What we know:
Layout: E1 7-17, E2 22-27, H1 33-37, E3 40-44, E4 53-63, E5 66-71, H2 77-81, E6 87-91, H3 105-108, E7 112-114, E8 120-129, E9 134-139, E10 151-155, E11 161-165, E12 170-173
Parallel strand pairs: 7-12
Antiparallel strand pairs: 1-2, 1-6, 2-5, 3-4, 3-6, 4-5, 7-8, 8-9, 9-10, 11-12
Amino acid sequence: MTAPDDLCQVGHVLDAWGVRGWVKVAPDDPQAAALLKAKTWWLSRPGFDGSAKPVQVRLARRHGSAVVALLDGPEDRAAAEALRGRQIAVRRADFPPAEADEFYWADLIGCKVQTPQGADLGTVTGLLDSAAHAILRVQIPGGDQDAKPRERLIPFVHVYIDTVDLPGKTIVAQWDASYD
Length: 180
């Protein structure tokens, strides 16, 4: 079975949990909503090289800051330990709906960022999680093609972000290029 195009990495297997084949997972998102909702996880070796294999999730639940899960396949601790380090992805379609005025990071990556006047600030290439809020990593457009791409960091908070248009893949930010 080939991996779907809409896979998003959501965590990795830390270790076996117990003696009956359960695994302990470190979620990438503290809420772990996608891990808990998805009935199929796609496991791959680190680096997510496209060799992801689907595995059915029998049970999954929170365990402190981690998630513990019983998967189809591993029946004992040794089999679960063999999954240690595997990256976990789920289909974007399996994510629970976001609340009003909330966004999944996976949906923001690739959005064009512009000022209210329409000036191009760049494209979101990733996000950082600071202690206070998320920060958009925006690759600055243009420049010398041989030079290392430059990026700007824009706090993803209401004071700087006016609108997010996910269908149009556009974010309007109160940001000036001279801030860099």
